[in-house]
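Worked example 4.2. Below are the chains of a multi-component assembly; read each line carefully before continuing.
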Amino acid sequence: MIGLIVRRFIQLLLLLLGISFLVFMSMHLAPGDPATVIGGPTATASDLEAIRKDLGLDRPVLVQYVDYLGGILHGDFGYSFQTNQSVSDAIITRFPNTLKLATASMVVAVIIGIIAGILSAMKQNSWIDISSTTFALAGVSIPNFWLGTMLILIFAVNLQWLPVGGLSSPIYTIEGMKQLILPAITLGTASAALIARMCRSAMLEVIKSDYIRTARAKGVKQKSVIWIHALRNAMIPVVTVIGINFGGLLGGTIITEQVFAINGVGRLMIDAIAARDFPVVQGTVLLVAAIFVIVNLIVDIIYAFIDPRISYD
Amino acid sequence: MKNNKVLFLASFLLIIIVFVAGCSEESSGGDAESNTTQEITYASTSDVVGLSPIDTNDSVSSNATFQIYETLFIKDPETMEIQPLLAESYETPDDNTWEIKLKEDITFHDGTPFNAEAVKYTFEQIKDPERAAPRASLLAPIDTIEVKDEYTVVLKTKEPYGPMLSALSHTNAAIVSPTADKEGDINKEPVGTGPFTFVEWAEGAHVTLEKNEDYWREPAQLDKVTFKVVPESSTAISMLETGEVQFLDALPSDQLPRIESLNDVEVQKSEGTRVSYLGFNMEKEPFNELEFRQAIAYGVNQEAYVEQLNGLGIFNESIIGPKVFGYNEEASEATYSYDKEKAEQMIEENGYSGQSITLLAANRDNYMKMAEIVQSQLTEIGLDVQIETMEWGTFLDTTRKGNYEMTFLGWSNSTADGSELLYPNLHTDNINASNYSRYNNEEFDKLVEESRMSVDQDYRKEKLHEANLMAIEDAPWIVMEHGMVTAAYHTSVEGLIVDPTGSWSLYNVSRK
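Applying the procedure described above to all two chains together yields the following structure tokens:
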């Protein structure tokens, strides 16, 4: 297991190096000049030149990249072109909000997804199954943007049960939990749907296998068959989906953060892209990539616990 | 029986959600509470870039700095007349000298006295190339800044500078505390003389200000002001409805019917200084031919576009708009008004039939809507129009380099002075910069320069009118609309006035 972690860690570093190069180059080579955005429409050509010099953008791209890498090795991710704030500070302030949102969404997704998946597998082709698969289809098809806006209109504006947006109160307060509910449902619905589908098909497959028939023949109760014998074996693909989704959720909170006015990493990234704030874009993309890889490593470790036959050594 | 556990778990979860949602309902409403407190929350579409008027240039930052800092002069939000604010009076002994007497006994929030030294310090910082202040151009015509005595400052220009008072009343020419600027970062810890003092800036989330109890005039009535970042306009409107925010501005025209239908919300609409236009790249064929531009000008029906804006646009084809200094009603009648037959005839006579042109549109504001309407109108007169859309950052870069044929842009005139519209946008000095149309006309340049280099306001107005007529005739631009400034606020908010440039002060605002 330690071997796996070390191997994966080295892979992670190589991967991040590759990603940093790709992001750096794509930002610098893509159309759009940070100086034009910062200078605004009134800036003259010499103003723009001065801004480029000030930001160090007048040097060759490769020199800038090597400089950037050198900074990262010293823990310096650079400074925002827009606000001059350190990129690490900007991310550290916002990451807790994104983590809260992604975790809450995952909780929503896992609970709804697994329950719906098991129920429809147990009652295949019943009304429960049909409504659960319909939910799954709707869940993956409905855009976050629309769902979020509808939830706001129903629960915040009309019923006035929950606040419209923001994530300013601490999570352990009632106000903090209330602020999380709508964004978590918005972001978690699509994952819930995927988990439900995966859970249903995995359960159906397991339930039809020989050992389950044997267990039933031996008179094991239905409850034990499902919860003890079947579920554990059906969990492997489900855990994969959960893992990949969680990584995706952490990097894919942009729209939900935008709709619910949450000050998270997703919004930081999208604002930075629009403003051609290169250091912030690079910092946030690296973070999201690193998280994605780390979450996948954790998923691999969990496999070994669920299925003792899996060994990485 | 088998499913009972699952069903129980599901119902339990539902109950928890409903319980958490239901309890402490009174605290989410905000309405009842906010009626009694002198607090206001404004929903801003993005975060401030910084809080130093010297180092920022965007309207979101200006909204906040306008409450913290003050300028020597200020425009009356209703009449747009320039009045002294931190200044007491001024004299112009000759055309190149501005002797400004300052008000006495004013201190900055950090206790630093406000005096001629503070003005000199601020203006020198704005002009300092090292500091690279984005609005350095405002004070560029000022040659020297002298302190005559503690409360008198003398500004000397090389050439007479007509829009001086407009420039000095611009938010980016606000006076900062020299002590605070030397010892700290006023971009993060702002210190001015204004009615509100800085409390906190949670980056990406909000800026909080509180009442300046030691203000040199009567203190403001609001105790606390929050600028909350809400990027989505539909979310901001929902927040206005539930009382989480009390004030929005720059309302999107497509959301206006929803806002106007809300209970307890008032909408303010008035004519603004912003102009939106269809601009040609005059260095590309056939856009360099007057007949072609004229044909398009006759073929575009701006009224049809303005009708789609739910009343948030003014139909007037003059380049200098009705709320901008230099406007003369005559100009609105000197334009190439919509005449489809004439347009068709010109297209045919000049051999432009079927001419293929690309219309570049940035995917923000109302530009896409404009593009679709203009495309269909120009197709009707016999042109083949393709729309190309671009994201804003790419768009700015592309248009600045002149890689386009025709496009839509707008100009928010923050000084409300015609010279500040015509000079940056259409003067030859600014080709490769803000003169996106690359309009090059010596005679026009001369008129604009005369309007800038005189301190005789009647003469300036006349020159601006002449320049305006010339540009209308040459048609480097076809004006699509003149903008409206808007705000929506809870009915408990009193005393809010949005001026034609879109800025507002919270000094006279209160909650009832």
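Take a moment to check your reading of the output against the notes. The radius of gyration of chain B is 26 Å. The first strand of chain B starts at residue 39 and ends at 44.
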